Amino acid sequence: MLSILRSLVQEVNSARDLHEALSIIVSRVQKAMGTEVCSVYLLDPASNRYILMATEGLYLKAVGKVSLGHSEGLVGLVGSREEPINLEDAPSHPRYRYFPETGEERFRSFLGVPIIHHRRVLGVLVVQQRESSRCFDEGEEAFLVTVSAQLAGVIAHSEATGAISGLSLTGEEARDVSFNGVPGSPGVAIGHGVVVYPAADLDVVPDKPAEDIELELELFRSAVQAVCEDIEGVAKRLTSRLRPEELALFDVYLRMLSDEALPGEVNNRIREGVWAQGALKQVVQNYVRHFEMMDDHYLQERAVDIRDLGRRLLSYLQEGEQKDLNYPERTVLVSEELTPSMLGEVPRGQLVGLVSVKGSSNSHVAILARAMGVPTVMGLVDIPVNQLDGKELIVDGFEGQIFASPSADLRTFFQTICDEEDELDRGLEALRDKPCVTTDGHRVPLLVNTGLMTDVVRSLSHGAEGIGLYRTEVPFMIKDRFPSEQEQRQYYREQLEAFAPNPVTMRTLDIGGDKSLTYFPIEEENPFLGWRGIRVTLDHPEIFLVQVRAMLKASEGLNNLQVMLPMISNISEVEESLHLIYRVYHEVREEGYDIHMPKVGVMIEIPAAVYQIRELADRVDFLSVGSNDLTQYLLAVDRNNPRVAQLYHSYHPAVLQALVRIAQDAHAVGKPVGICGELAGDPGGALLLMAMGYDSLSMNAASLPKVKSVIRSVSREWAVKLLKDVLLLDSPHVIKSCVELALRNAGFGRYLRPVKSTSAALAEQVAS
């Protein structure tokens, strides 16, 4: 059965369209199970009815014509119960529904299993037999369930392909086809899709020896030079659109192409006797494998950059050329995996949106998109990319959703959002230099999370009062070795100078487990509970001491440095870290540097730390909650895993209760506590955190103006009452709805993106 299943999946995957895929399924399953009938009924989203889409054994004239209501007949019963139904005598069942046009009155035995993809019932797969004495056995039932589970994704993809092409299951015109991903850059864009394909495919490069090593070395040198010239050209074209600090991202690419980095390793492989293309493949795949193992998604996305460079180098080695693309006036760039260099190919003023199958909000593309103000959606895993070329698209960077072939009503709906956002941004510019103070005088400093100078520039333009979290991993990621003390010092000085005299909180190196560096690989069975954060740097004090020394020297004359320790789970880690920090402080002072002892704090992101707040606070100067990791650990949910992402919720009662406890315990011993994470950047979440007593909120720069506007327009007393109300609720979805309703009633509906389905919102719009 396993070989049959494998062959079936391969055949279906190669089908040209949905109808051919379904025909293959019913034909092969009928033959494999030795049944007289195999049929597929798909649930049409538009009519909410099951339609007979393919059959082997029933009358073919019934295909496309026979349909059942959502809970009608045995097919509807299978779908509504979401489990198999196995009957020896189907006509005697009270839910049996007879359709004379199918000719199924001859068949008495019935086995139906649901076809489910990501919790959505797509349809029902049915087999039938003439003999009433035959009952499909457990093995046959298990086989059909396995077939259904294996093919659900293929059917969903085929459905989407047909829908984007403009046809529904019934053959009628399909409009407003939507796909869900993750937000990469906020905003709404309306334009036409331009699909960009990678320059070359490293995965298919064969392994073979080099016939002439010197020739292969020369070919590779020429390819590196050509790619460097391409990147410099792209950077030059973007010069007028980006700040110098943002253009520095392309310097990262060029550093990767220096002799000491990727090309050096490829040359070594070539000298070992591997031809240039094979050597490039081996080195790039090794880099990518290490990057993709990492837990920190900001760092994980560096694999995209390495892969992009590999493809471009391979393209020149193969003497391949990208086809000339025509970019419409309003271009939405679409790719399996967008890279920064692809953005520079679009003529100035024509790029309005970005769509990427792979990636997250931490990729270089997402960072650049936010800097350029281009709405972006990432992680659209089920989308048939090839079908989007030339299609009109709506990119909703707020909700992480795209729409293909939109109707006039949908286009008007989102154009209104675009106009409102433009007007809102202009209105919020006036708040940049104003303090974040409630109407009853409560002051809440708003800080930002940064990783690159790109983030710093945008943060300053939005009125940030300091850095609540600087990810020091960045200098470690752009090297093929640990950066020296002097190199780290230069990076840290840039951040400290940009915000002086306001505080800059630098998190010590947070690697380990599944966040290993390419030159410091770590492989573990359970990386989320493994060797990471402070555990790694305390085990390697030579890394920790150099980093702290670089931080302290970088702060000379500025004295706005704060040091933060990640992934703290017990008191001994804090005490050992403090011992090393004090040691470095005295050593640096003895070297003649005039520095102040920085404030030292810990990150609260492990549940164990929630119950040791008082003990931790007694030993440090401040606390900062890493709400994203804390939420994931409390709920045991990886929010980047599409199978469980819906379970991740910042408004979960357990999360809110933990946050309340942290703030209360910290203040009980007189220590300030801040928070850095997505909840702080949500206007409703920011109000709850302020009501809990958090002393500072750190967020993405793009979120800062709206959060400031909301806080300046309400009293803390109002926020405290809202907090008391939601703490009585037991559902994260109800809590979120309650908070948003309060914001709408207070006049902040314009800051909230539609949380209901677009069709429902449109219905309300029409009704009004």
Characterise the protein shown here:
The structure is a single chain. The protein has four domains: about 1-165, 2-Layer Sandwich (Beta-Lactamase); about 175-195 and about 325-425, Glucose Oxidase, domain 1 (3-Layer(bba) Sandwich); about 215-320, PtsI, HPr-binding domain (Enzyme I, Chain A, domain 2); about 435-760, Phosphoenolpyruvate-binding domains (TIM Barrel), CATH 3.20.20.60. It is built from 28 helices and 22 strands. The protein has an eight-stranded mixed beta sheet with strand order 7-14-13-9-10-11-12-8. Strands 15-16-17-18-19-20-21-22 form an eight-stranded parallel barrel, surrounded by seven helices. Strands 3-2-1-6-5-4 form a six-stranded antiparallel beta sheet. Keywords: Cytoplasm, Kinase, Magnesium, Metal-binding, Phosphotransferase system, Sugar transport, Transferase, Transport.
List the helices and strands and how they pair.
Layout: H1 2-13, H2 18-33, E1 37-44, E2 49-56, E3 67-69, H3 73-81, E4 85-87, E5 109-117, E6 120-129, H4 138-164, E7 177-180, E8 182-185, E9 188-195, H5 213-237, H6 244-256, H7 262-271, H8 276-292, H9 297-300, H10 302-317, E10 331-335, H11 340-343, E11 351-356, H12 364-372, E12 376-378, E13 392-396, E14 401-404, H13 408-428, E15 446-450, H14 453-461, E16 467-471, H15 474-477, H16 485-499, E17 504-507, H17 534-539, H18 541-554, E18 561-565, H19 571-590, E19 599-604, H20 607-610, H21 613-617, E20 622-626, H22 627-635, H23 653-668, E21 673-676, H24 683-692, E22 696-699, H25 704-712, H26 716-726, H27 732-745, H28 758-767
Parallel strand pairs: 9-10, 10-11, 11-12, 15-16, 15-22, 16-17, 17-18, 18-19, 19-20, 20-21, 21-22
Antiparallel strand pairs: 1-2, 1-6, 2-3, 4-5, 5-6, 7-14, 8-12, 9-13, 13-14
Helix pairs in contact: 1-2, 1-4, 2-4, 5-6, 5-7, 5-10, 6-14, 7-8, 8-10, 14-16, 16-18, 18-19, 24-25, 24-26
